């Protein structure tokens, strides 16, 4: 139905600099995006402008240069590192006589290739339909042949109107199915909330090493690769953290500068794990020379999904690529961990990260002395299961004297399950 390029094609890349300081890093990132989409760049064309051209985005002379490059290189597609309007895309396609795709289209194509789960595929399809709905005319050039005349006039909708209606119906259908998935996720979150199980969500710029860190902390085998958007589908695993107990760790989709709004909206159910998290682990590529820009891009998306006020612990990853760097925890003036330096690849610093998690999640520690009747051996067993007993002995009356130490969340949960427990406090 839609004119869309497929992987394995050859492309002419276009990037326009709008400031005197040329953002070469942005162009290099776009090359990585294109490579991730299985497209081979055959030529890169750059230009400088104060503002986008209304008709071609680039100037008319530069547009002619692009068309000549397509002819000379035999490219199948022109890829712009910018968001183009539907009119600009059509004008460029007429001039270049080939497909023209903007940055959003490239990212959507990568997402379509990487989605694995039913939910992920639905989210990608929703984003694609929303993006392509404004470009319907591209898929229906036969409408130009419609003519009026005797026997051809009358009530009814045009083919384009029919397709727009079908598109709206399809979007409603996908939203309905995603709503069911979101309800299932919400039930899981409510169950974890009732059990006082904290959720830690990994966030960060794409290719910062989130999945590698997730695998290292959970001994899982989630797909991890040195490429942009290796992870699309959220993965949840349970881990045990000292003095905290069970914690749910969530691996999520990576963020990127100028992340298309349609994608943020489509991945609402996935990003909900981030919005509902107890703590965010913001994973950062410590060797990337765009560290500050990447952090700012992630914080921008977090603000867009209303997750910017959730407590955050920075994880500076890939220290194995730094010379003679020793893992460490950076603290604020209140001695609270704010940054941990680790290597997910080698495992360096992971114990320090778990220590920082303990400090950030444990909060208050409950410390009590209890006197349990002999018939309450079951309660004693519960404390042993929580690894909470520091000392114990039996008094002359046969009562169990226990000194217990455990996170306040575990204590409160136990008191809900065993209402008589506070009566045994000395």
UniProtKB/TrEMBL annotation:
Family assignment from sequence similarity: Belongs to the TRAFAC class OBG-HflX-like GTPase superfamily. HflX GTPase family.
Organism, scientific name: Moellerella wisconsensis ATCC 35017
PANTHER family: GTP-BINDING PROTEIN 6-RELATED, GTP-BINDING PROTEIN HFLX
Hflx-type G domain: residues covered: 198-365
SUPFAM superfamilies noted in UniProt: EF-G C-terminal domain-like, P-loop containing nucleoside triphosphate hydrolases
The protein's name: GTPase HflX
Keywords: Cytoplasm, GTP-binding, Magnesium, Metal-binding, Nucleotide-binding
PROSITE patterns for the chain: G_HFLX
Binding positions (Mg(2+)): 211, 231
UniProt keyword Magnesium present: yes
Needed cofactors: Mg(2+)
Gene3D superfamilies reported in the protein's UniProt record: 6.10.250.2860, GTPase HflX, N-terminal domain (3.40.50.11060), P-loop containing nucleotide triphosphate hydrolases (3.40.50.300)
NCBIfam families on file: GTP_HflX, PRK11058.1
Positions of GTP binding: 204-211, 229-233, 251-254, 317-320, 343-345
Physiological role: GTPase that associates with the 50S ribosomal subunit and may have a role during protein synthesis or ribosome biogenesis.
GO molecular function, one term: guanosine tetraphosphate binding
GO cellular component: cytoplasm
Predominant place of localization: cytoplasm
Assembly mode: Monomer. Associates with the 50S ribosomal subunit.
